[in-house]
Amino acid sequence: MSVRELVVLGTASQVPTRHRNHNGYLLRWDGEGILFDPGEGTQRQMLRAGAAAHDLNRICVTHFHGDHCLGLAGVIQRINLDKVPHPVTAHYPNSGRRFFDRLRYATAYRETVGITEAPVDADGDLAVTPSYTLQARKLSHPVESYGYRLVEPDGRRMLPDRLAAHGVKGPDVGRLQRDGVLGDVTLDQVSEVRRGQRFAFVMDTRLCEGVYALAEDCDLLVIESTFLDEDAALAAEHGHLTAGQAAAVARDAGVRHLVLTHFSQRYPQPEEFERQARAAGFGGELTVAYDLLRVPVPKRR
Fold this sequence. Notes:
Elements: E1 4-10, E2 24-29, E3 32-36, H1 42-49, E4 58-60, H2 72-81, E5 89-91, H3 97-104, E6 116-117, E7 124-128, E8 133-138, E9 146-151, E10 155-158, H4 160-165, H5 171-179, E11 181-182, E12 185-186, H6 187-190, E13 191-194, E14 198-202, H7 209-215, E15 220-224, H8 232-238, H9 243-253, E16 257-261, H10 271-279, E17 285-288, E18 294-296
Parallel strand pairs: 3-4, 4-5, 5-6, 14-15, 15-16, 16-17
Antiparallel strand pairs: 1-2, 1-18, 2-3, 7-8, 8-9, 9-14, 10-13, 11-12
Helix pairs in contact: 7-9, 9-10
């Protein structure tokens, strides 16, 4: 049975706290694992969450500030120590290649796994698999930063009443799905489009076109809300979002489940983030993330 869920490994921004580790987010998607922004301590958080190096197929880094990437060294070395048998691909801003190289080879170790580097230098598709297309969009931060988006291909939902009306049953249903036509019955006559699921990961950024493009029609949006609304000027100065801004993006983009994360250490209580997100008019499912939380991707519409 396929599993689609987000495993939150860390939710702190620049400074970790006693209760919040640096960033780290593992998306499980139909047998693949995509690790986003492995900050310091990610390897240990994976252990606590029951995740292993063998679960990783991709690593996606939004930008090269330490709270989003200092865990790369440990994660990459663990991939090699455990001799992960399948390919692992790393995506990151091309302008930060030197930082990736330094982290990948931060210390001596035996390299047993050939990690494929696929740097990002423009908006567009990064990978196309049968299960998803991975996309990137540029964000607005003091250093070059990209957000990531997974889009599942649309499928077809068979409609039992229409199948019955056309006398299609048993093995003929599979033949019609495969061939698109069965005698004088077409697939369109007995089915409807089943929209693929969409997931987006938006970290350090001001409001910009890329934020809205990533969030559009998402089933699950993970987005930074470093500051509360009363500190909007500070957020803009440092290239971040407030809780209200993040929620307004989700509201306007038609997001079903919003996950707020990447909290400044200046705010010890998370309740105000939820209150401000609701005050911004977001009416969907809302989660204020905490470490080791698991969030399922909503079921298809």
